[in-house]
Amino acid sequence: MNQKRAFRWNLILLFSVFNLFPLFPQEMENKPTTIPNLRQIAREIMNNARYCALITASPDGQPYSRVMDAFAPDSNFVVWLGTNPRSRKVQRIQQNPKVTLFYFDKPGLGYVSLMGTAELVNTPEEKEKHWKESWEAFYPDREKDYLLIKIHPVRLEVVSVKYNVSGDSLTWDPPVIEFAH
Asked: What is the dihedral sign for C-alpha 9, 12, 15, 18?
């Protein structure tokens, strides 16, 4: 294939890819999304993400993030996480319980940010209920080494190229679900 013809095919391919899969949400047509549909889309992104990032703040306001293996959100979007009770995240939550969970959907080019209030839970019943066998190596003594973090949702933001859910065309503010406290 000569260079001119190869260039033309590459150009056609490039335009096709950009028309089918816009890279920037602000370039998409902003179609209204109903709240029930938005909840369904958010739940799908959260369930499909293998991990999420838990973001806490230090006393001086510096954000800290770490990768977490969260449980799927319940029907009210409450999310449970497991951790070591001596971890820095526990100290940060004790100082300031306001946290954010961030889920990224690479195949669907989307994300969910769940802002909420974290509660530390250390009851045997909940620890038994919220346990993953794959965590055995991390928590050899579940009684002492394992603590739960329960995130009570306050606000949820969603963007998804797959479902054509995008932010405001000027501000890029994403669609939001507010939860009653």
From this structure: negative
Map out the domains of the chain with their CATH numbers. 24-178 (2.30.110.10)
Which residues have a Cβ under 8 Å from the Cβ of 40 and sit 6 or more positions away?
none
Q: Tens of pLDDT along 11-35? A: 343 333 334 344 443 333 444 455 5
Task: Report pLDDT digits (tens) over 55-77.
Answer: 999 999 999 999 999 999 999 99
Residue 165 pLDDT exceeds 60: yes
pTM above 0.70, yes or no: yes
Identify which of 106, 107, 116 has the alpha carbon closest to the alpha carbon of residue 80. 116
> What's the Rg (C-alpha) of the chain?
20
Please name the amino acid found at residue 57: A
Q: Residue 161's closest CA among 53, 41, 73? A: 41
SS (H, E, C) 54-99: EEEECCCCCEEEEEECCCCCCCCCCEEEEECCCCHHHHHHHHCCEE
Closest CA to 146 of 71, 84, 87: 84
